[in-house]
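Need the bound structure for NDP, inputs here:
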Amino acid sequence: MSTRPSLHCLVTGANRGIGLEFTRQLLERGDRVTATCRHPGRATALNALAAEHPGRLHVLPLDITDAKSRAELVRELPLVGGDVDLLINNAGVLHSGERFGHLTAGNFEDSFRTNALGPLLLTQALAPHLAAGAKVVNLSSVLGSVGSVDGFHTPSYAVSKAALNMVTALLAQALAEQHLTVLAFHPGWVMTDMGGDGAQLPATDAVAAMLRVVDAATPADNGRFLNRRGEPMPW
Ligand code: NDP
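Answer from helper R.:
Posting the output first, comments after.
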C-alpha cells in the first residue's frame, strides 16, 4: 500500500473530457479534488462523482476567462481544502472550420482569452495558495508547437496554444523561487468532444500516462513541454 500523502488538486474544465478523467483518476488514487467548471448545476458526471467520494470532491464554478469568477474561486478555496498541491489548467476551446482568406478576430480573441490568458491569470491569482513543492500542469498541444507545424490547421487554437507555451515558460520563471514545477503537455489525440472523429487515444490512457510523468517530475523539470510519455516536445 502506498504511503503517499493525499494531494489537494484543482482542475479546470472538469465537467467533461480530459478534465473529468483527471478528476476521476485523482479521486480513485485517494487525492482531494476541487473540480471547476462553468455550470456546476449541469455537470451530471461530476456531481455523480461527488456523491461517490463525499468530502473529497468539491465542485465550484469557474469561467476561466472571467476575472470575477477567478477571484470568487480564490476566495472560496480555504473553505474546500486550502493550498493546492497540483493545479491542472485543462479548460480549453478549439474553433474548427477556420480557413485562410476568411479569418476574423473573434475566434483568435476567444481562444487567446481561454487557452492562454485564462491559465496565466488563474495561476497568478492562485500563486499565494500553491503549496510548497506544488506542480502546475498546462494542457497544451502539438498544434501549438512552432517546430511541429505541418499545414494550416486550426490557426486560432494553434496561436493560442503557442502563447500557452510561452505562458508556461514565463510561469516557470515566476514560480521558480517557490520551488514549484510548471509543465506543458501534449496529451496525444484524445477521444473527447474536442478530439472528435479520428482520435483513437482513450482519455483514461492519456491521463494515466500524464499523471505518471507529473508524479515523477521535480523542480529540475520546471518549464518543460512534454508529451504524455515525458519526452520533450519541440517548442
Ligand atoms: P473538451 O472540448 O472535451 O472539453 C473542454 C473543457 O474546457 C470543457 O469542460 C469546457 O467546459 C471547458 N471550457 C471551455 N471554455 C471554458 C471557459 N471559458 N471556462 C471554463 N471552462 C471552459 O476538450 P478536451 O477534454 O479534449 O481538452 C482538454 C484540454 O486538452 C484542452 O486544453 C485541449 O486544448 C487540450 N488538448 C486536447 C486534445 C485532444 O485530442 N482532445 C489534444 C491536445 C490538447 P464547457 O463544457 O462548459 O464547454
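Comments: Residues 8-227 form a domain with the Rossmann fold fold (CATH 3.40.50.720). The mean pLDDT is 97.
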